[in-house]
User: Fold this.
Amino acid sequence: MTFIDPSVATQPASWAADQRDIALFLDFDGTLVEIAPSPADVRLDRRVPAALDTLRGHLSGALALVSGRPISFLDDVLTPYRFDTAALHGADVRLGGEVLTQAHASAEMRLAVRDLVRFANSHVGIIVEDKHISVALHWRLAPHVHDEALDLMQGIADRIGPLVRLQAGKAVAELVPASASKGTAIAQLMQAAPYAGRVPVFIGDDVTDEHGFEAVNALGGLSIRIGDGETLAPLRLPSPTALRAILLNAADTGRLTASSFYQG
Assistant:
């Protein structure tokens, strides 16, 4: 990977006039919604679900969520709509209502959850997010345990071995199946209708999205990072608020292309 410095990450001029049909892939936390103190505290703008459904129609169905959240959570928060989804960092992929890939919880992951719950019980502000086939440890409310939390997660990853991957994000670390990747999931979806033949656009906000950016860049698409930090994405938007404004406007006007994300 070659990261782009935040001061020079910008939209290539060639995209500003691009009007080709796109396939839109959207992260959830930090992208469609602001990061919250705990995973349960996120709040989605009530206009967004209907706008995404409208955009899905404009894109002939080529819109998918690519998130670390479970499918069930995304379905709940976006109710009554159901979208194509690459959930749990690509471990679970649903296309057209059919689950294409679905991982299963391992005994080792159950033991990891037990150890993390024990750690959380002895540290105020630590949150364990059990996703069954993966588990995340959050310390946004307890930043002083950053090093200790990472050391614990690394030790568990070492114990489980090559079947699991440890990935760190913003005040969170997660143990996920080693085969799961947002990039792999996007590439899988891009081989199927209605995504095949379109230009992929993936928008995310965190280190966990960089594999998705890498895959989209390799496919000749456009990757967009929300906020600061080193990134493979050539375009940056300042906040989820800025992205929502673009999406809501596109839903109203009935047109969304790669150039829609270019703000000058």
About this structure: The mean pLDDT is 89.
